[in-house]
TrEMBL record:
Protein name as annotated: Type-4 uracil-DNA glycosylase
Family: Belongs to the uracil-DNA glycosylase (UDG) superfamily. Type 4 (UDGa) family.
UniProt KW keywords: 4Fe-4S, DNA damage, DNA repair, Hydrolase, Iron, Iron-sulfur, Metal-binding
Domain Uracil-DNA glycosylase-like: 48-211
Length: 223
């Protein structure tokens, strides 16, 4: 039984929609009905995380994009394809990873003069905070050794409001609020590379940061 059977969420809080028990499948089903913030009203669907339930690495982005919103899976658009390429080059098998976003619904604005194209809008702090219970639950269920924060929004969700990509990227940082040996490595979001003036340099930086993750995984093998 979901907590939402007994109480409804406030305007910006997903907590009442989390199930009382179960694994990732139970959380994914519950997230489909999340009304924890107003973003669900315009999004096509909830885009929950996907991947290995015992993954040693979890990749966290900002929010679903247009293609992710339509297909219901994270990182399946152009940024996802670039991420796949960077992971392979860094020596990380995405097939053994878990991928998700800090916010589970697509936030966008429609531009009529561009054929009603849906343009990404960054989630607000309130929306990020509202969705954090889902991300926290995913991390508790998967229990990865390393979490990769892809971009500023994911970094703030994991490391707090003072996080800055330019200052903290590429370093193996302890995960706040956990007693386990768990680390965060921050880097840029793949979509930022697609918008960069010098894509080649930006992409090389992403691969360099992901190699920090690969070295950490190689040095800390699970029993």
């Amino acid at each position: 039984m979901s907590r939402s059977d007994d109480t409804r969420a406030s305007a910006y809080d997903a907590t009442p929609f989390l199930p009382d028990e179960g694994g990732l499948a139970a959380y994914r089903r519950a997230a489909a009905d999340c009304r924890g913030c107003p973003l669900y009203e315009n999004a096509t669907q909830t885009v929950f995380g996907k991947g290995d339930s015992s993954a040693r690495v979890v990749l966290v982005g900002e929010q679903p994009g247009d293609q992710e919103d339509r297909q219901g899976e994270p990182f399946v658009g152009p940024a996802g394809r670039l991420l796949d390429k960077a992971l392979e080059e860094a020596g990380i098998d995405r097939g053994t990873a878990y991928v998700t976003n800090a916010v589970k619904h697509f936030k966008f604005t429609v531009v009529p003069e561009r054929g009603k194209r849906r343009i990404h809008k960054a989630p607000s702090l309130r929306e990020l905070s509202a969705c954090k219970p889902w991300l926290r639950a995913e991390l508790e269920l998967v229990r990865p050794e390393v979490v990769v924060a892809l971009g500023a929004t994911a970094g703030k969700a994991l490391l707090g409001g003072s996080f800055r990509v330019t200052k903290d990227r590429g370093s193996l940082l302890p995960m706040p609020g956990t007693d386990e040996e768990q680390y965060v490595v921050a880097t840029v979001h793949p979509s930022a590379i697609l918008r960069a003036d010098d894509r080649e340099a930006a992409y090389a930086g992403l691969v360099t940061d992901l190699r920090v993750v690969a070295r950490a995984l190689n040095g800390h093998r699970r029993a």
